[in-house]
From TrEMBL, chain A:
GO terms for molecular function: FMN binding. Keywords: Signal. This is FMN-binding protein. SMART domains: FMN_bind. It holds the Pfam family FMN_bind. The keyword Signal applies. Residues 1-22 form the signal peptide.
Automatic annotation (TrEMBL), chain B:
This is FAD:protein FMN transferase. The keyword Lipoprotein applies. It is an enzyme of class 2 (transferase). Its cofactor is Mg(2+). Keywords: FAD, Flavoprotein, Lipoprotein, Magnesium, Metal-binding, Transferase. Its EC number is 2.7.1.180.
């Protein structure tokens, strides 16, 4: 193990893409291939009626912000859904795989932004730090891709999955029969 | 090729990044690593009715309860940290966290807890017995353990470089250094740790602190006297294993400079920020050995 602690002036860090460092993990097609290997996908998008929205909100306890349901029927059984939730900073798109009984198979976050990342941009910056290697410099242009601090809660996603499970019961399940 | 994915587990976002494998191998390794994370999530949740933790909290005083080898391994780590920290790290603080509204009441437990880590007996064959009613919570150690398990899985599958980040509990393994920003309100500056082949975990009290019974309470307890640790302190611990970094943040939070000896035993270092007091680094340079 080797570690060095640095204190950088905030001016030495360029924040990319506005206030956050965004990582795109998977396209919809990549998520489909990972979550249901070898299957084919039939789009079966729905628009929820006012009554369905109310029923889903009542049963899940979660607001329905978007009446469009992006759902794909899976050739090997089950459903693939794409939705998004409002996180602390941004919208977080995610994919949900349901098995043929409507149970959660897996969840993948498709894109995620975490605040306070960035890139080291000050040239030849001799960082202030307290450590043993007093000659250490941080290299220009290196990305800070990891954040350690207050743990972000994934409650938004948990709520979003709960809402989609109820959406399945109310708007998708009858199509399976 | 770099492949990175994120899934929600352990109450937070778990990101896994793999380099040095082709896309199919990388995705297969990441999927397998997430399966390990899912197992830890299911076994060690305080909330889920059929987790090992809930079964222990419900039945641990009635009979010896057989738990999964991973749960047993975490309990062994927890007891080791409890002993070495003289009870400052104590997983039996669940009762206080429930009382202060930081955890929900556990499922099906009718007895009110009264003991400490000393009342937990680890028996042969993966069995655990409580000598007094206890509510254990593994929230202060399970994430770090899960990160270690995920890293082991990725290395077994041939990853050259991999990073697992469970809500800020991070382990980096491989041939490159990673920059990790510490999310701390330190005016005008950014704190960054450059890390090779090691782990980082951080804790801060101020986000979840609340006033209960006229006293300021936070999620970090000193197990020895059951008081809330310094709620405005930020602590980052760097260690080889993430389970060590995760657990030791709680001890450093409570003990500050007094935790230097314990850090030294694990070859760990800590970076502590107290608003008004600035940064403190442990063990201090002159006694770093």
């Amino acid at each position: 193990m080797k570690s060095t602690f640095f204190l950088l002036p905030l001016a030495a860090i360029a924040i990319q893409g506005g206030a956050a460092y965004a990582a795109t993990y998977l396209s919809v097609e990549q998520a489909q291939a990972l979550m249901f290997p070898g299957a084919s996908f039939q789009p079966d998008f729905k628009t929820l009626s006012e009554a369905q929205v109310k029923a889903i909100q009542h049963a899940s306890g979660v607001d329905v912000r978007n009446r469009e349901v992006k759902a794909w029927r899976v050739s090997t059984g089950g459903w693939f859904l794409v939705d998004e939730v409002v996180g602390k900073h941004e919208y977080i798109p995610f994919a949900l795989a349901l098995d043929d009984k409507g149970r959660v198979r897996s969840v993948e976050i498709l894109e995620y932004r975490e605040a306070y990342g960035g890139q080291i941009r000050e040239p030849a910056w001799r960082a202030q730090f307290q450590g043993k290697d007093s000659g250490t410099r941080l290299q220009l242009g290196r990305n800070i891709r990891n954040i350690s601090g207050a743990t972000l809660s994934c409650k938004h996603i948990t709520d979003g999955v709960q809402r989609l499970l109820v959406t399945y019961e109310i708007a998708l399940k009858q199509n399976d029969r | 090729m770099i492949v990175e994915r994120t899934q929600p587990w352990l109450g937070t976002y778990v990101s896994i990044r793999v380099e040095g494998l082709d896309a199919v191998e990388a995705n297969s390794a990441i999927t397998a690593a997430f399966e390990h994370t899912a197992i830890v999530h299911r076994l060690m949740s305080f909330h889920e009715a059929d987790s090992d933790v809930t079964r222990l909290n419900r039945e641990g005083t009635l009979r010896a309860v057989t738990v999964h080898p991973s749960t047993f391994a975490v309990l062994q780590w927890a007891q080791r940290f409890a002993s070495l920290s003289h009870g400052c790290f104590d997983i039996s603080v669940g009762a206080e966290l429930v009382e202060w509204g930081l955890l929900p009441s556990p499922c099906g437990s009718v007895t009110s807890p009264s003991g400490s880590w000393r009342d937990i007996e680890l028996l042969p064959k993966g069995q655990v017995l409580f000598h007094r009613p206890l509510w254990i919570d593994l929230g202060g150690i399970a994430k770090g353990y899960a990160v270690d398990k995920a890293i082991e899985c990725l290395l077994e599958r041939g990853a050259e470089h991999c990073v697992v980040n469970a809500g800020g509990d991070i382990r980096v393994q491989g041939n490159r250094t990673e920059l990790i920003r510490l999310q701390v309100e330190s005016p005008g500056t950014a704190a960054v740790v450059e890390l090779t082949n090691g782990s980082v975990a951080s804790s801060c009290g101020w986000q979840r602190k609340r006033c209960i019974g006229g006293k300021l309470r936070g999620p970090h307890l000193d197990g020895a006297d059951r008081t809330t640790s310094w709620t405005d302190r930020f602590v980052c611990v760097v260690a080889d294993h993430c389970v060590v970094a995760d657990a030791l943040t709680k001890v450093v939070m409570a003990q500050g400079a007094q935790s230097a000896n314990l850090l030294r035993q694990f070859g760990a270092t800590a970076h502590v920020f107290d608003p008004g007091g600035g940064w403190m680094h442990l063990p201090a340079r002159e006694d770093a050995g």
